[in-house]
Write the structure tokens for this entry.
Amino acid sequence: GLSPELSGTLVMLSDSAASAKILASQKLGSLRAPKPQERAIVFACLLSSLQHESQPQVLAALIEGLAAHADLIASGGEPLATAAREIVKRLAENFAALSASAQKLLAALGATRRPAVAEDLWREVERSSDRVLRGFIQTAVAPMEHSPDFRRRFASTVARDLAAAPGGDLATRRLVDAS
């Protein structure tokens, strides 16, 4: 079974009070579950909560909690696709409140050095017309590991975005600086 501390923290995550959810997310993000099975349960609960939560402060805490599980997200498949979809969706809904937390998660995902991470993140934002969101994800994806084919497609898209962007756009300047 689960340790009593872990069980209690998971119950807190399902609590209706935002402060309890934030505390639980922080504890789960810093918890180093000794068993791989417990770690997988924590990861699944954080990712599931991200899909169903609506309060910006709780979402920020969940995103930061997921950063401790970047290796599980980056392992690919459905967890990566779900995390990429939810991160982009949540950033589109409330960029100002979530961008700092998302930046931490994206840095942790980049550190896994798995090309699928960049590709899945970009796939989710590529259709967006939100220039700030696209620039944010482009800046995060640019230093990540890429397959040669993705690198060519990504560079071409970034070049088109930069050509279409007005010169005074702060997001554009940041992207150029990061390149």
Notes: The chain has a mean pLDDT of 87. The two ends are 48 Å apart (CA to CA). The first helix runs from residue 4 to 13. The chain is about 75% helix and 0% strand.
